[in-house]
Amino acid sequence: MASDNFVQPAILRFDGHYDHWSMLMENFLRSKEYWPIVESGIQAPTPNAVLTDAQKTELEGRKLKDLKEKDYLFQAINRPILETILSKKTSKYIWDSMKKKYEGSARVNRAQLQALRRDFETLQMKDGESVTSYCAKTMEISNKMRFHGEKMEDVTILEKILRSLTPKFDYVVCSIEESKDIDTFSLDELRSSLLVHEQKMNRSSTSEEQALKASTFTHFSNSRGRGTGRGRGRGGRNNNECGNQQQSHHQESKFQRREKSEAFVDFKSYKALVEKEVGCPINVLRTDRGGEYNSHEFANFCENHGIKRQLTAVHTPQQNGVCKRKNHTIMNMVRNLLTTSGIPKSFWPEVVNWSIHILNRSPTFVVQNMTPEKAWSGRKPSVNHFQIFGCIAYAHITYEKRNKLDNKGEKCIFLGVSDKSKAYKLYSPSTMKIIISCDVVFDEEFTWSWNQNKESILVDFDDEEKGQQPMEDEQKEEVTQNVPIAEQSPLAAESQRSQRVQRRPTWMHDYEVARIDQSEDPLNHFALFSDCDPTSFEVAVTEPKWRKAMDAEIITIEKNDTCELCDLQNGQKTIGVKWEFGVDYKEVYAPVARHDTIRLVVAMAAQNSWPIFKLDVKSAFLHGDLKEEVFIDQPPSYEKLGNEHKVYKLKKALYGLKQAPQDCNIAMFESFKKSMMIEFEMSDLGMMHYFLGIEVLQSSAGIFISQKKYVGEILDKFKMKDCNHMNAPSEFGLKLNKDEGGNKVNSTLYKQIIGSLMYLTTTRLDIMYAVSAISKYMECPTEIHLLAAKRILRYLQGTKEFGLFFKKRKKSNLFGFTDSDYAGDSDDRKSTSGYVFMLGTGAVSWSSKKQSIVTLSTTEVEFVATIACACQAIWLKKILEELQFKEDGPTLIYCDNSSAIKLSKNPVLHDRSKHIDVKYHFLRDLMNDGVINLVYCRSEDQIADILTKPLKFPAFQKLNELLGVCSCAALKD
Hints:
alpha+beta
């Protein structure tokens, strides 16, 4: 029975796609255990060889397998092709012939691979194409490339799919890139994620759950009395379904009624309206079991028009949940508007109309990426006409309806918009009539006082910017001139002011404000000032710690021989002495310190195996020699006994003396070279471990500087300490732009992130380009820019330990690399210049900056970038000369653009570059004077690439190693 049910597998016939056919055919032959015959063939015995019975049996078996294999190959090959291989005697010859014919030689294979590479790079997902189809195309090309010898990694295919999807998958791509590690994310996982998103989008356009299936019936009637159905408030609940569900159920219609018996009349009007607008009949009507929907007249009407009735079970309102929830939403909004506006409840129909008008133009989770009004009509609705419901409005009175002395406007109350006219609906308290007018001026700060028949002021300190809108102020001023406001008595005004609800201004929301309890002892608050600095000598002298500090200062002045006692001659004047008291903080650094200089000193120390120490010089500043005669009084309480009448003649400058900043350097630095320990009192802080926020780690292998602690503080500040890490700070091939149509984000938060990252570039040049790229959009950042900034933070999460490592090695000269990205800015088409200077094995100076001009060629942009690099080289050479570091020959600058190098050397090329500014040609003088020398390097060896464009991870990692960017593990011996 088993043999009877066995199904012979079908043999795939050759259709011209050799790579696909050969893979399947090889797998088929391997399953039959015939593949060894194809690989090795049949070894025929020599003519004189004598075979044993076993060898003869084995040989016959191999020949039989070869015949079966030939049979399979003949079945899989079409007759025209089969004619060309009939002369082949064995299956191995047939297979080799097919492979040579269709796979070709190495040269043909290379040409086919080039074509496949082009197809792979240009492949894009088309609108309307399914995820399954596009992924299949991508994998088909990838498999062909692998067949022709290309090493195609899964991460390469994954990145290709992500960057070539249609725009509707943008936020899914961003979510995957931000939450997943691309290197470990499989293709199957990507395909499943995209399929789930595609199914959700398909469901969103056809699912019945997208519909806003609420219809609140409203119709005014002159009849009075109660309805006959069960009491559920004004208006029953019903729900209907049209034949074309994709176009229906999106907008709420308003049919208010006073009696439930009017439901049948309203439904007929609603049916005519809906079928006219949608163009399809109503198929299903879902209602509760109220009497207004169960009349014989209602049932006969639905039956005659082919409308299927669906009724809820008794006491199960959840079966009509969509309409019920929407009614609750509307009524909650109505109650809020009635409360905030103070309008009487008799105006509830107008409040319902305005509530539904707002809901139809507000975003909702049910209809994705559009409002109900847009889903219904296909047009994006305008909300420019939205005003505060119940506010004061002035309707213009036309010239025909007023006299010369009459007011030009009538004070009214805003009740929404008209259903029949493109105008506002207003209520006039004076005439008690509804006014429809499009010429209206609104005053949203005032509302009508229904109890006192006058307006009251709505005080809202949160809206602090209203006074900064000149357009609205001019309108209000004009209305005030044309429409007199009713005068109020002083008593009424006082009563009105007493009822205002005062709130904190917006700018105070970031502060914690505590109210002082009246029962609390006021003396408790003086504890805030218990540890302040003394303001006078009389106060300070009473405290031992300040007395001790003054004694130490006097001892230091005397030890440095700052002044001497002498008699004051006639005509000479003294300068008074004043003690200044304050805390001397230990970590105070020069505000003009440049990190380039610090890194340069560290690199020199690493080259020469010098240890770096940190010293604290006490009272070193402002002790230069004075060239003028300056006399000062003796400090109070420190007068010399018996010489109280004498004064001090200064030999050196003191704090606060106007000559001090001019005399502090020359003598101090000269004496520092000879005998600093004798001249100043110093404290040795040992080996330098921390300086200017930079952590320094010295070892026998070299010096490592980093900002690990600061990285942790940044991640904690922006709540990214638990995020997943990325392997690069920016995505390869990503070009940011202004994204004017994108969703705006908090610009203050965005600027804080960039400011924190800019300081981190002191030791992390690997993020320099990414930070420079996102800093262009601080004025108006969007979600795309914030995602790029967060990607940098995620990269830092995985590279907290990274810093700059300066290895111990023989002395080497300063050399630099310069590069540019031509027209990299998609907004203004300006280019990015980048340079980096190396001393030994570590980078000491770098820059990534957008050029100030628009260049016209790659030669010009490289030329401009080289100029910026040369200027920095001049400054660095001067610093090295000050540090007694002598260089051998000019500073080498490596550039990967040969035209720019020739332009700097050969004046013949200047005819083709006349538009380049003259100031950029001083590069030739620098080269002629032997200051710098431009050297050509290949693009693969251009280290400055990391500062001008986002790179693939292998290239990014390679350049980091060449620049000395690594983790502290590199210091291990």
